[in-house]
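From: lab user (bench 3)
To: helpdesk
Subject: output format question, protein + IPE

Hello, I'm new to running complex predictions and I'm not sure whether the block I got back is the full result or only part of it. Here's what I submitted:
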Amino acid sequence: MPRHIAIIMDGNGRWAKQRYLPRIAGHRGGVENVRSTVRACAEKGVEYLTLFAFSSENWRRPAEEVSFLMQLFISALEQEIAKLHENGVRFKVIGDLSRFERPLQKLVADAEKLTVDNTRLTLTVAANYGGRWDIMQAVKRMLADKPQLAADFMEPDLLPYLALAYAPEPDLFIRTGGEQRISNFLLWQLAYTEMYFTDTLWPDFDIAAFNAAIESYQRRERRFGRTSEQLREDAPRQTPRRVSDGR
Ligand code: IPE
Ligand code: IPE
Ligand code: MG
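Helpdesk reply: Thanks, we reran it on our side. This is the complete output you should expect:
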């Protein structure tokens, strides 16, 4: 089972269009599907689920759609946070929250605080997130903390400042909706992640589709730069180490 799954939930607009509905109906359908995906992850023992909800580029959408998405985020959070907490879910948001309105910032801070000690599943929502922003903010915060590193620094110096520092790197990346691109999602963290792309639109991505993605992951051999033969020799003793472990 992957410990950490990261998902680009794409295809809400096209799902609505197929049904002659406005795009916002697709986003509502998308939220429904987030609910069942979170439940499935908790049941399967997935430890981290990271969902791309709003990219730093999504501000370019029509103002009404942006404002609907913000409202939807607020109402979903208000409705779900107690249940998430009851079910042992730790809730986190990554992204540049400074562009959000105060009430949403407060809601997020309260939700994170309420669930901070939960250990069953860490649910991270990426909102106004961009992979390049993440790397830049990490460098800036690191240098503000430790100005002496300006002369020279190494990967381990930077890691604690990346937005997902609390999670292992994703094992499985899923993008629904047919596009095969990263769209400025987790650039640093996806270095050795297994990629899974499907044409299924996000609101249609049900448990069977989710299981198919996990099965695809389970058939893959993660070599982390080594050869198959090395992995077979090592298998009884240890699982392959991550690149960032520096081995
Ligand atoms: C993804 O669905 C949701 C967000 C980006 C917020 P889209 O809205 O991108 O749906 P399509 O790609 O237009 O179908
Ligand atoms: C990526 O979807 C962002 C989210 C799902 C939140 P988009 O639909 O915005 O991606 P592009 O612009 O088509 O690459
Ligand atoms: Mg899209």
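A quick orientation on your result: The pocket of IPE (ligand 1) is lined by residues 9-14, 54, 58, 69, 177 (CB under 6 Å). Let us know if anything else is unclear.
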